[in-house]
Amino acid sequence: MVAAALAQNLARVREDIARVQAVEGVRHDVRIVAVTKGHPPDAVRAAWVAGITDIGENRVQEALEKQASAADVPVAWHLVGHLQTNKAKLVAQRFAWVHSVDSPKVAEALARAVRSHPGAPPLAVLLQVNVAGEAQKSGCDPAEAAELAAAVRGTPELLLMGLMTMAPFTDDEGVQRRTFAGLRQLRDRLRTAELTLPELSMGMSGDYRAAVAEGATMLRLGTVLLGERVG
């Protein structure tokens, strides 16, 4: 990935964000997480040079290899893909964020991993919710989100920051927006004075404009920034 091309892509995305927010009357900041799945470690450095400080990976092992190759690049690592509980021990102290907590089992596995490093700070996590109800997607049922949120909130090793979802694979913006609106509305119902859930991780390369329109605070962007995957 040539850093200049990535910078141009990033500028276009930021223009899109500003344009959509102006139309929708939204004013909050949107964090861009560059998802480097399938790209070489050089993509991490190129993203950082372009001004991106958050890197997302779907697979733990691929992330660890890139972290080793780009150890001098000061970025925050986000695990955005499904987490198998037997990989949780590899996540503590290597990731700043986990977007894919979808069950009490996953939450407890992460908590144990953090506890195994005395003095480690809490791990920032998001609950993955299957708003669209698609069988092939990970995520808890929206009806189970309150119970899962309560379980995570009671775990001192984890810092519950918000929710994550994926829209159906479609070009229909109406479907995209309904899915993202569903996550936002669920977040609003779960909010309390003690649990503000400020983050909504929603929107990928094909639907990030719809996500911004519905209040996304984090976008998980791969192809639109980095081009087609090479592996």
CATH topology: TIM Barrel
Strand count, sense and barrel status of the largest sheet are: 8 strands, parallel
Q: Categorize the overall geometry.
A: globular
Mean pLDDT: 95
Structural class: alpha/beta
The CATH architecture assignment turns out to be Alpha-Beta Barrel
Uncertain runs are none
Strand content: 15-25%
CATH superfamily: Alanine racemase
What gap, in angstroms, lies between the N and C termini?
13 Å
The helix tally amounts to 8
Share of helix among residues? Answer: 25-40%
- Counting structural domains, the number is 1
**Overall CATH class:** Alpha Beta
Query: What is the total tally of β strands?
Result: 8
Order of helices and strands: HEHEHEEHEHEHEHEH
Strand order of the largest sheet: 7-6-5-4-3-2-1-8
Give me the Rg, rounded: 17 Å
Annotation keywords:
eight-stranded parallel sheet, 16% strand, 231 residues, single chain, TIM Barrel, alpha/beta, 8 strands
Summarize the structure.
The chain has 231 residues and is α/β, with parallel strands linked by helices. The protein has helices spanning 3-24, 42-50, 60-69, 104-115, 145-153, 173-190, 208-213, 223-226; strands spanning 31-35, 54-57, 76-79, 97-101, 123-128, 158-164, 199-201, 218-221. It is 39% helix and 16% strand.
